[in-house]
Amino acid sequence: MKAIIMAAGIGTRTMPLTESIPKVMLPIANKPLLEYNIEAIEPFVDEIIVVVGHLKEYIINYFMKKRIIKKLRFIEQKEQSGTGGAALLSEHAVLGREATIDDEEPVIIMNGDDLYYAGDIKRISKSGYAILSKKVKDPSKFGILKCDANGIIKEVIEKPDWFVGNLAGIGVYKLPAAVFKYLKTIGKSERDEFELPSAVNLLLKKYPIKAVESTGFWFPLNYPWSLLEANEGFINIASSKWKDSKKPNIIGKVLIGKGTRILPGAYIEGPVVIGKNCKIGPNCYIRPTTSIGDNCHIGNGCEIKNSLIMNNSNVAHLSYVGDSIIGENCNLGAGTIIANLRHDGENVKWLSDGKLIDTGRRKFGAVLSSDVKTGIGTLIYPGRAISAHSRTKPGEIVKENITQKKRKVGKSKEN
Known about the structure:
This protein has 415 residues and is an alpha/beta fold. The protein folds into two domains: 2-220, Spore Coat Polysaccharide Biosynthesis Protein SpsA, Chain A, CATH 3.90.550; 224-398, UDP N-Acetylglucosamine Acyltransferase, domain 1 (3 Solenoid), CATH 2.160.10.10. Helix content is 16%, strand content 30%. The strands form nine sheets. A seven-stranded mixed β-sheet has the order 5-4-1-6-11-8-12, sandwiched between helices. Strands 15-18-21-24-27-32-35 form a seven-stranded parallel β-sheet. A six-stranded parallel β-sheet has the order 16-19-22-25-28-33, with no helix packed on it. A hairpin with a 5-residue loop joins strand 9 (143-147) and strand 10 (153-158). Helix 1 runs parallel beside helix 5 (118-126) and helix 3 (82-88) crosses helix 7 (196-203).
């Protein structure tokens, strides 16, 4: 059996993070999202076909260094044509020929940009034809599975505007290889894409496909704060297997990578993940559910709270980072303060595609893409985005998003 992981998307809603890092390579607890999914499916398949596109070299170069590369094959999707288009590119890699409507060989097709519980991937792998599912609060945002009393799916209804159920398909499929034949017969959806569920609806007329309900976590990455929530949620779950620290300045469960130095006066309150070759301290405070990548420096008088700091980034002097995401190769100048709470106590808003979106979070700081440098004394409003390679001036107050093409674009007023 072979697996297809769809990893070609640009990730427009997760900008500015995905300007320089593919969405599937965004880290959770210091490991790329795609790596978790590959590790989960690898024991159950003979080959994993990864469909890449946006920043494909980043993905390929990373996994070239990994043992698991022996099971990986990369296929490029040059045109973003939806999940159906991505899956169809893998037809010959799976079968070595064109599919027929009678091809019953199972194939697993899964999203690369959601984090799945490994136990669920195992259950799907060992089941018959199936779709991984989970009950959701808002069915209008998902493809809802309409099932009979035995859990056999009768129809996939995309984003229904009426209540037909709340059992959603969450992007892991085990299907007969005949799906490739059906993908050639479907037209584009209202989103101008070839959608895999459209082919599944045709398959359902011939093949029994069951809804397998998830028994563990599922973290979809829809917006930048979804990464923050996935990091927080995963660390809380994973840390149950870690050992408590016996050091007086490290409270609770903390994973510390090889070569990392914890200097005098540093106080760490777990669960926290710290990567390799970091310098932590002196005299800093790292609070729960923070992830700090490799080769980072958290220095004197700094406080980091529930944040994600990626590889090779420094927060070295007298700074506060709360509920924020700091990309790779960033440097926060002395006295950089990221606000994470509105004065009126309302949820923080996020400007996306010219529209203000309610993040659903009372506390949410900033999102900095890769290679951002802030000048000393920079102050950043809650819910602001700073694009890759941007710079701020000393003493600058960041009230608006900073983009690459125009230094400040799109006012994010508190309303």
